[in-house]
TrEMBL record:
The protein, known as: Pyruvate, water dikinase
Domain PEP-utilising enzyme mobile: start-end pairs: 567-630
Pfam families found in the cross-reference section: PEP-utilizers, PPDK_N
InterPro entries reported for this sequence: ATP_grasp_subdomain_1 (IPR013815), PEP-util_enz_mobile_dom (IPR008279), PEP_Utilizing_Enz (IPR051549), Phosphohistidine_dom_sf (IPR036637), PPDK_AMP/ATP-bd (IPR002192)
Gene Ontology terms, MF aspect: ATP binding; kinase activity
Residues annotated as domain Pyruvate phosphate dikinase AMP/ATP-binding: 17-203
Organism: Alkaliphilus serpentinus
Amino acid sequence: MMGFVRSLRDCIYYDENYLGGKAYWLNILINRGYTVPKGYVLTKELYEDYVINNNITIEESRDELFQYDEIREKIYNGHFNEEVLNVLYDTYEKLKKPIIVRSSSSIEDNELSSCAGLYKSIGDIYQFNKFIDAIKLCWISSFNDMIDVIVGKRRDYAISLIVQEQIIPEFGGVAFTANPVTMDEREIVIEVSKDGSKEVVSGSGFCECKIFNKLEICSESIDYPFDELIKSLLDIEILREKPIDVEWVYTMGTLYFLQVRPITTLSAVMEKNIFETEDAMVTKFNLQNCTSMHSRWLEKKIPVRKYCKENNINLQRFIYYFSSNDKYHNDVDNIIFYMRSNIIEVVDGKKNMLIDKQYLKEIINKEYKDSQVLRIGESISTEYCGFSTYLDGKIYIETVKGGFTGLYEGFNPTKYIVDLNGSIISETIEEFEQEYFLNPNDGKWQVRDIEKNPLTISKEVIQKIINMTAIIKKKYGEVRLEWIGNKEDIYLFDLTVEKTKIGNTYLSSNILSSGIAKGKVKILNDISVFDKYIQEVSIRMGHKLSEMKKSDEIKEIKKKIINERTDTILVCEYPKETLVTLIEHVEGFVFRRGSLLCHLSIILREKGKPAIIDQDIFDRINDGDEVMINNGEFIVF
């Protein structure tokens, strides 16, 4: 049992494979006299014991999307035995609060790959139960498709963890003993934020960049604590025998080191300044503030985009532009030519702008002059958009005017059921008097009134949707596709794997999720109460959702909505995805309008929660009525 926890200071006899890269090098720094926050290593043995005691089988990674969902959920819902909990509680009590739990994998922070930002760290922990949750969530982060893309699928999922006292910084940041973008090993680059290294590495905060020439340091007058930081950086670089990347914070006169790792991007030779997002070389370079954004794409979008390009499926174009390597921005003309749309999106990880592409060079010089890496993509005018899925030899299509927000906000879609030759089996045509559009001034989706007209799509467009859906099915099965349309052109936007197969009965009925449920009506007139949590809701029932369910604010809102002493049938205007927070508290849902393929409908089917559409529902019932959902039938007692 003692092998589960080891003092970070006393790990000198253990190797990097056992401790993980982060813990191994922090131990070396401590024993070389550098200041590191007090902490302990939770070894791989703790993880292995937990997996065995909870009967969790770790299968070899499969070539499919969302392959790790079931394992993540099992780890989060598992339990430590009493003896292990006592050991962890003793560890927790030895540290000043707040504490932070950080991953330390043997495949991160090493010579070949940093896996920057892919393994989880959870801070601001003041309670023991939050400490236990953080351990599980850090373990869960090892089951990540993004890591597979970078280091390969045959790897050790077991990771050590570090639990440390969390330092509240006066300021801090990240420092490099070689310029990670220009590859110049004569330069030291220090990025500083008043909020510490977290804001720098995530790209979410404002930071100042300082560059020092190693050959001129002796003759320069450098303010404290940067003089001490630079001296330490040069010493640690000699110790590691290669250029390094260090996270650091400064508070109350003390310089703390949080992490040290080699700069893995220096081994990659950049022979050009423009790379498509799915180019494997991109993972070899330092993407600066675009790193976390690219990590999210690695999990799903990049594998899908590669497959689509191989099969001539139309996609929006996105590239990374290493502007700092192109001093006079000579490559901008090539970017303008490559982008088919006149309006493009420019992102540096902190700021995003929608601009006319003819002004790209001017905007870079004015708005992004300090940015070293930009992600630039097409902003296709979305005349209409929709979902499609393959079902028993037929294609089911839903479409609305404008952008996807219309579907998410419950617009009734025009619906088609077609065969593979494009013949229409059935159709339901809806009229639209509103649409969501992307406001170029602020980059946000907004609603506007339009002249009321029915939405139909041509046979040519239907055939393109059929072809795209059939090709994707060959690789990923019966997934739901999201696509956007501009005139006669269709572009794949995203896809979602649905574990529960949609039966034919769904296509010609009011059923969103089949089943039987009985209870008392609760009418929820205002479903915007969960809007502030929209970014935390994942269609995959992962740890973000679990964290959200535990928030005190969510609990209070639930108490106002749900009487937990009775079975509840929740009645709402439409299936807004944030209602997922209420699924475990209700027996079923009734909506006035909505889409069969929207996010919440998919989750309801996966969770086995009955849900139907009833256009007259608000005229038929009152709060407290005894009702029953019997598949598509709605009964008021």
